[in-house]
Specification:
Helix content: under 10%
Radius of gyration: 29 Å
Structural class: mainly beta
Strand content: 35-45%
Number of helices: 13
Number of domains: 2
CATH architecture of the largest domain: Beta Barrel
CATH topology of the largest domain: Maltoporin, Chain A
Oligomer: single chain
Largest sheet: 22 strands, antiparallel, barrel
């Protein structure tokens, strides 16, 4: 039982040749081993717990070896996976800098969300994110120990339980390594910014006749790069339609600069040179946030991991896994945007009103009257906006510690029955530190000479109209919070018992079965800093959270080889949660049929579910500032082009919005203030998915394998918050703003609505809950061709092409209707219809060279019309990568270059983060990297 697995060795060789993504989908892999069947150890494949002597699966599985990851030159495993075509939508990594991601790295298969792709290590769950969506942070994957990564592109709730709706990513660790291996890596950009990354690792393995253990220590560091270090993300210019039939360049930036907004009178600013108020000029007075905002966030990680096993008897062994990760990371955003609230603003927790008025007694007030009504034109308070650049910007720092331990026993009963019992405990703790948030409760005091004089902490009266640099450090210390620290903590306990074996013999071999039981207990808590909890900062109010759940589950699985060319599999799982998720039953059936030796057809149908996670079950009241893109600006042209309906146009007119031009700022998006209500009685998500595929291995072309798989996934009771742009558009598309979606917005007649005050809904209230249905379908293609050569120093070659075509991606929510997203992009998500990558490799006895092409099809900006801007499409993007390796004695050297042509990411209008979507596209530019590895 405890000998090396010959099939695993053949898999590793396939990975080295870059063909494993196809080879692992072929049951025929093991046919060459049939004459040695007695010597081949039984294995379980990702997506099944049945121990079999040969690989087979009715579901598509791609596998990537450690050599594939190493030769890609990426800084971390999340960057490697996001280039796999099946991963689309919003990928989270070091290029994500929205201040709320906490430095985590996550992956999203099919664009269905991080928490619908289950991440495993050696087939077991990892602890998820406590302060968000419950998904696994890939910072905690022991990259130095990875033997291969299996990507199961099919639902698998029957085997693994909740969350496996889109698919499964299983990191298989090397528990048989013997010797010492040490490696180091260095990479950096060659363009405007370097974004240097470096790291090293040491791995050691020892073995005896009855035991072995592998340990590793690794370090990884990613340097920061700011947005102004890259041309596309520095303050740029939007090509907006100017009414003369042409597109003129309009400077972008934030209108939250030193602007004074007066209802009915437009925007004003106090000229720094004269001290007099003048009209706000969007071409010169916007705030440029690119010198402060991070494009690549710094991330430093230390990690220790160990894995081992010891033979207790001839039929039983004990095993263990251990992991510790220490991560520090930081996000950087532009300075706080003043206290842009009107006189009716109320803090969510205590009802106090912080009015951004400036009294006439303020010595810097150029109006001579209270600045909540400086021109005397109405009784509506104005907004006094200012970026407090003197603070240096908002900083979000994380210090995260993660522990994981697994201990178990496994063995065999006779020659055809296998058992496994394991217990795992995981703990994650993160301290989130926030610096330089503004304080709501001190604004009125700071601008009022009498109030400031009465407050011993107030240094001197504030000049909110002054030029940047006019606020002293003492004043900034008074107006900002300093260091705020939130604490997130989570634990997970998991007990599992599995039994598998052979039942009876059929024409195609022995029937296989497995049964098992799992008990899982998860707990989590969030303790916000007192200032955040009280809602006294511009970051909004957040309630403390604490909760958990436990679940008991049983499953069963059957494998029936009715004939040598026909295999049927079936599995089912029953889950019982002590939360609103209640009881759940899921099932899956699959068929694998060889029409002829060269052609196999496979199909599967499965149901799945996702139970609400701890954060969703215990979400308190929270606030946010989502971006809403106006339908009304350029409304005349949009109506003529058919981009908006007559109903939308009429509602724009009724709201008093000018539909003839680009509005007052020269661009058409703005941040809204939203309050999210806590979740109530969440139901679990439920899914139906099926795959139909064909596998071609033409005998006339040795070494060629082709996979084509159609997939279809539908998820009901989707848990989350509605997209604010979708709500806004549903509201604007209804007669007389009568849609229930309008109830969320003040700007559509809510309690704080004032005509002609905002071109957007200014404030909104949303509810966290079960929203509706997600539907997506498409086709995956995998082609691999490899073989031997005898051409001088060239001894082999490999050709690979992997692609995903998305036919449809549709949100169907009652409040917003059906929205098709395939082929579209917005500020944080890109859903191209086509993604593919190809590899061409040649190799010799001690060297290899690989050339890769990565392709992302164009995506239409779904939030902005082509009649308004020339940047209404995220253009198709092609990247070229090269890498070469050379081995000499115990050393292996790799040198490569990613994005060889220094291709910039596509620029599109509604892209809020750095004018593009950094989670999808390469933002560093041309990047060189080198690796060295010594093996003894």
């Amino acid at each position: 039982m405890f000998t090396n697995n010959k099939l695993a060795k053949s898999v590793k060789l396939a990975c080295a040749l870059g063909t494993a993504s196809v080879a692992l989908t072929l049951p025929a892999v093991a046919t060459a081993q049939e004459s040695e069947a007695a010597a081949v150890e039984r294995i379980s494949v990702t997506g099944s717990r049945i121990m079999k002597s040969e690989f087979s699966s009715s579901s598509p599985i791609s596998s990537f070896g450690d050599e594939d990851i190493e030769m890609s030159g990426v800084a971390s495993i999340d960057e490697f996976l996001k280039d796999v075509p099946a991963f689309t939508g919003y990928q989270m990594g070091t290029s994500t800098n929205n201040g709320s991601d906490s430095g985590q790295k996550k992956i999203d298969m099919r664009g269905l969300g991080f928490n619908r792709t289950l991440v495993l290590v050696n087939g077991r769950r990892m602890i998820g994110d406590v302060n968000g969506d419950g998904a696994v942070d890939l910072n905690n994957i022991p990259e130095a120990m990875i033997k291969r990564v299996d990507v199961l592109k099919d639902g698998s709730s029957t085997i693994y339980g909740s969350d496996a709706l889109a698919g499964v990513v299983n990191f298989v660790l090397d528990d048989e390594f013997v010797g010492v291996e040490a490696g180091a890596n260095l990479g950096m950009g060659t363009s405007d910014g370097q974004a240097r990354n470096d790291g090293f690792y040491v791995k050691a393995g020892v073995a005896s006749n009855k035991a072995n253990m592998v340990m590793s220590l690794s370090y990884n560091n990613q340097d920061e790069m700011k947005q102004d270090e890259r041309g596309f993300s520095a303050q740029t210019q939007y090509p907006l339609h100017q009414g003369n039939g042409e597109f003129d360049l309009v400077t972008s930036g934030s209108s939250n600069s030193r602007k004074i907004r007066v209802p009915g009178e437009g925007n004003w600013i106090v000229d720094a040179a004269t001290g007099e108020a003048r009209p706000f000029d969007a071409t010169t007075d916007l705030y440029d946030y690119s010198p402060v905002n991070a494009l690549i966030q710094p991330n430093e990680r230390w990690q220790f991991s160990a894995i081992g096993k010891v033979e207790v008897s001839d039929t039983m062994e004990a095993y263990f896994e251990g992991l510790y990760t220490r991560r520090t990371s930081q996000q950087r955003l532009a300075p706080d945007a003043s206290f842009a609230v009107d006189g009716s603003f109320e803090t969510p927790n205590n009802g106090l009103q912080w009015n951004d008025w400036v009294p006439a007694s303020n010595p810097y007030n150029p109006f001579g009257v209270n600045a909540d009504n400086p021109l005397g034109i109405s009784d509506i308070g104005v907004r006094v906006n200012r970026r407090f650049v003197e603070s240096g910007g908002r900083l979000f720092r994380q210090s995260a510690d993660t522990y994981r331990m697994v201990a178990g026993l496994r063995g065999e009963i006779g020659s055809s029955m296998f058992w496994d019992v394991a217990y795992s405990y995981s703990e994650a703790e993160t301290i989130d530190e926030t610096l330089n948030y503004g304080r709501f409760d001190r604004w009125a005091t700071a601008v009022d000479p009498d109030a400031c004089a009465a407050d011993a902490a107030c240094p001197e009266v504030l000049n909110p109209f002054g030029d940047y640099g006019s606020i002293t450090q003492e004043q900034m210390d008074y107006l900002t919070t300093g260091s705020l620290k939130d604490l997130y903590r989570g634990t997970m306990e998991l007990f599992s018992a599995n039994l598998s074996g052979e039942a009876f013999e059929l024409d195609g071999g022995y029937a296989g079965w497995s049964v098992g039981y799992e008990h899982r207990n998860e707990k989590g808590s969030y303790s916000p800093d007192e200032f955040l909890a009280a809602g006294l900062t511009t970051g909004g109010a957040n309630d403390p959270q604490s909760g958990g759940f436990s679940v008991d589950e049983v499953y069963g699985e059957l494998y029936l080889p009715f004939m040598e060319n026909l295999e049927v599999s079936a599995s089912a799982r029953y889950s019982d949660y002590d939360t609103s998720a209640g009881e759940s039953f899921t099932y899956k059936v699959g068929v694998d049929y060889a029409v002829i030796d060269d052609v196999r057809v496979r199909a599967s149908y499965s149901t799945g579910f996702r139970a609400p996670n701890i954060s969703e079950l215990n979400s308190g009241q929270s606030t946010g500032f989502p971006i809403i893109v106006s339908l009304c600006e350029f409304g005349d042209r949009k109506l003529d082009a058919g981009d908006i309906s007559q109903t939308v146009y009429d509602n724009c007119q009724a709201l008093g919005v000018d539909t003839t031009d680009a509005g007052e700022f020269g661009f058409a998006w703005q941040s809204a203030y939203t309050t999210s209500a806590p979740a109530q009685d969440l139901e679990p998500e439920e899914s139906d998915s099926y795959n139909i595929g064909v596998v071609l291995t033409p005998s006339m072309v040795e070494g060629l394998a082709i996979n084509i798989d159609y997939w279809n996934i539908e998820i009901d009771n989707v848990i989350g918050e509605p997209d604010m742009n979708d709500l806004y558009r549903a509201c604007m598309g209804s007669e007389n703003l009568s849609s229930p979606a309008c109830d969320a917005f003040d700007g559509a007649g809510g309690p704080h609505y004032t005509p002609d005050y905002d071109i957007f809904p200014a404030d909104a209230v949303t509810e966290f809950g079960n929203l509706g249905t997600l539907k997506t379908s498409g086709v995956d293609f995998d082609v691999a061709y490899s073989g031997d050569l005898d051409y001088g120093v060239i001894t082999g070659y490999s050709l690979n092409w992997s692609a995903t075509w998305v036919d449809t991606y549709e949100r169907v929510y009652p409040l917003t209707g059906a929205i098709e997203l395939a082929g579209t992009a917005n500020g944080f998500e890109v859903f191209p219809e086509w993604r593919w990558q190809s590899n061409v490799g040649i190799m010799g006895d001690d060297w290899s060279f690989n050339y890769k092409i990565r392709f992302i099809a164009e995506a239409t900006d779904r939030l902005q019309s082509a009649v308004a801007t020339a940047d209404a499409v995220a253009e198709q993007t092609i990247y070229h990568d090269i890498v070469g390796t050379y081995s000499y004695g115990p050393a292996t050297f790799s040198l490569g270059m990613n994005n060889l042509t220094d291709q910039d990411p596509p620029y599109f209008h509604s892209a809020f983060n750095a004018n593009t979507e950094p989670g999808t596209y390469d933002v560093i530019g041309r990047r060189v990297f080198g690796n060295v590895k010594f093996s003894f």
